[in-house]
Write a structure and sequence with these properties.
By secondary structure, the chain is α/β, with parallel strands linked by helices. The chain has one domain: Aldolase class I (TIM Barrel, Alpha-Beta Barrel). It is built from 10 helices and 8 strands. It has an 8-stranded parallel β-barrel, surrounded by 7 helices. Strand 7, helix 9 and strand 8 form a beta-alpha-beta unit. Helix 1 crosses helix 2. It is globular. It binds 2-phosphoglycolic acid. The site of 2-phosphoglycolic acid has 13 residues, from strand 8.
Length: 243
């Protein structure tokens, strides 16, 4: 399967950035799938600018309900209507800043799937949890509770301490965690768990992408800071193995 290189713009990006960014992606011919997840307000404009380019657009969160009195929230069907085909769920910044639990994330994933979106569920341990030898246990527990029954989507392993810090786990640690995630997916989903993509995220840059993306069970990357420059995102995609 082709790798998925997904850009998470977080709370960055303005309307004025879209033409040049979209033009750079249009001019490139990546051998991976590409996905850009901008803030809600830019989804429709980015999707229009990328129409026909084979690049996906996604949201960074959605609510677990189809509609209702939820001030400030966005429903999955609204994202789909704006042109999104994916949605990032349970990012550590959502879990930390907004108190999202794995149960909340599972509800959101169910809503996303019902609206025809592919959820990207984020999991990952804090530094204290890794130091305590709890990393695998924490990630397994997040997976057990964040994935609704019959889950079909993407998993992103993002160690919290590697996000935005320039630090990455050792290759051995990435291999061990991705292997554990694969085992947990197969335990939970059976045969279907074998084919789901598991992305690595946390300080992925053009300079470290080739080694991270070549590791077993790494099916792509979730890229924050480096996705703000189209050239950097494309350099990361270019470093992915052909599959
Ligand atoms: P980073 O963020 O690439 O800036 O570390 C990754 C993420 O939070 O998805």
């Amino acid at each position: 399967m082709r790798q998925l290189i997904a850009g998470n713009w977080k709370m960055h990006g303005r309307l004025a950035d879209i033409p040049a960014y979209a033009a750079a992606l249009r001019a490139a011919s990546a051998h991976t799938d590409l996905l850009i997840c901008p803030p809600f307000t830019l989804i429709e404009r980015l999707a229009a600018a990328l129409a026909g380019a084979g690049v996906g657009v996604g949201g960074q969160d959605c609510h677990g309900a189809a509609q209702g009195a939820h001030t400030g929230d966005v429903a999955a069907a609204m994202l789909a209507e704006a042109g999104a085909s994916f949605v990032i769920l349970g990012h550590s910044e959502r879990r930390h800043d907004h108190g999202e639990t794995s149960a909340t994330v599972a509800g959101k994933a169910q809503a996303a799937i019902a609206a025809g979106l592919t959820p990207i569920i984020c999991v990952g341990e804090t530094e204290a949890e890794r130091d305590a030898g709890e990393a695998e246990h924490v990630v397994r527990s997040q997976l057990a509770h964040s994935l609704p029954a019959g889950f079909a989507g993407v998993i992103a392993y993002e160690p919290v301490w590697a996000i935005g810090t320039g630090r990455t786990p050792t290759e051995a640690d990435v291999v061990a965690m991705h292997g554990a995630i694969r085992a947990a997916l197969v335990e939970k989903l059976g045969e279907a768990g074998k084919g789901l993509r598991i992305l690595y995220g946390g300080s992925v840059k053009p300079g470290n992408a080739a080694s991270l993306l070549s590791l077993p069970e790494v099916g792509g990357a979730l890229v924050g800071g480096a996705s703000l420059k189209a050239e950097d995102l494309l350099a990361i995609a270019a470093a992915a193995p052909r599959g």
